[in-house]
Amino acid sequence: MIDWDLEAPGLENFFKDYLRETDWKQQKGVLEWLYAQRKNEEVKWQDWVIKFKVKETDSDLHLLVSGKDNGNYSEMLRDFNVAKFYEEHEGGHRIERFREELLSEYDYVLIDSRTGVTDFGGICTIQMPDILVMLFAPTEQGLSGTKKIAQRILESHSNLPFDRYSLLICPIPSRFDSTTEFHESRKWLERIATELEWLYESWLPASANLNEVLQIIKIPYISYFSFGEKLPVIEQGVSDPAGLGYAYENLAMLLGRGLDEVDVFVEKRDVYLEQISGQKPEQDIYNFKPSKKIEPVRIFISAASDDEPLKLQVETAFKSSRDLSDRVEFVESGSEFLGRSRKAVLEEMIRTSDILLVIFSQDSFMYVLTGEGPYEIKDFDDEFRVIKDYKYIPIFRDSGTSKGFRKHYDDRVGINLFSDNGDAAKLVVEKVAPLIHERFITKI
């Protein structure tokens, strides 16, 4: 856990009963780390992490606080200019290294931050997360503010100079009183489902009912917990469906699975919980029976963003083929890869694939005409840096890329789409089909 709400710190107050021996005046945290990075000082943030245990957990909880509570905190915060940190001190790269260090040490990192309208909050809502949870109250200000901030965050996230998969945003309605204001509560949930559907649809399965999901993930209002820093999960437990502890457990389960298989969560909450807690093997949980079907041939297709339409056409052509549809399976990145580097994800997808298809075009493989030779390769995308060490089938969309590629890097023939006037996707299927049949037979 990281307290990055630097303007209003205090996450440690929820755990002070477990941290009675901590000297908060000397306990360094995020702010001291930022100052050290600005000064280019070598420090280990790991040395400032507080480790403690609560009776409800088997393993330690780790906490990195916002900074020293010694009277100088406010002045230090005012003097730290986030824009200058990024522009003059390579702040973006320093934050990125910090992110990578966190991912190498932890399975889950929870960061408490502002909504993103501040410079400090923007670090946590744009650069740091794989999943952004946005808590908001059912008010005009809360709903409209969530929409505006989410749009701003997604636009900024798409312009990050670092490799990222799409940011998943999970808006969570909070302070919901469904017990005494049932009709008003239902009206607001319907409105939230309508106005924020574009955020939920990036991770919600088509088979799941958004209104039903919102009923489950909303955070109820219980006046007792509005005073002081109480922990409902510990004080109230998680067994009461109307309690805060139960609601927080729902959210923890979904985050634990990377917002994946939400339809299973809705239909079989207990099963979903057992899978998260590791109490049963996955086969037992879903009552899977060993399949007698032969495993399909797994195909991974690498394509630059501008070549995505062709990639989708190729996948559709395979799935539409009567002879191949039940023999192929496409390897895609899913929630299991959240928090991992792009290179690690690619290596894992490639390692578990039977056939690699790489679409090369001027968007994914750039070259420039020079006076010294026909072509000089200017740049590769990251995917080829990983893929080039494996056996693959190149697919060329233009002759220039084909010539430059074969001259400087690899002389394999591949598939030339520029030399055929027919359906490009159909041509790929025809060329790859014999290899699929061959690989499929070896699996029998």
Which features would summarize this protein structure in a list?
Rossmann fold; two-stranded parallel ribbon; 42% helix; 2 domains; 5-stranded parallel beta sheet; alpha/beta; 444 residues
Quick structural gist:
With 444 residues, the chain is α/β, with parallel strands linked by helices.
Draw up the topology in text.
Elements: E1 2-3, H1 30-38, E2 50-52, E3 61-63, H2 73-79, H3 82-88, H4 91-105, E4 111-112, H5 119-127, E5 131-136, H6 140-158, E6 168-173, H7 182-195, H8 197-200, H9 210-217, H10 232-235, H11 244-256, H12 262-267, H13 269-277, H14 282-286, E7 297-302, H15 308-320, E8 328-330, H16 342-351, E9 355-360, E10 365-368, E11 376-380, H17 382-387, E12 393-396, H18 399-408, E13 415-416, H19 424-443
Parallel strand pairs: 1-4, 5-6, 7-8, 7-9, 9-12, 12-13
Antiparallel strand pairs: 2-3, 10-11
Helix pairs in contact: 5-6, 15-19
Give the proportion of residues in helices.
40-55%
Radius of gyration: 26 Å
Helix-and-strand structural type = alpha/beta
- Annotated CATH topology of the largest domain: Rossmann fold
N- to C-terminal distance? 48 Å
Mean pLDDT, to the nearest integer, reads 81
Strand segment tally: 13
Written description of the protein model:
This protein has 444 residues and is an alpha/beta fold. The chain has two domains: 2-285, Rossmann fold, CATH 3.40.50; 297-443, 3-Layer(aba) Sandwich (Rossmann fold), CATH 3.40.50. Helices cover 42% and strands 12% of the residues. A five-stranded parallel sheet has the order 8-7-9-12-13. A two-stranded parallel ribbon has the order 1-4. β10 and β11 form a beta hairpin. The chain is globular and about 70 Å long. 25% of the residues are buried.
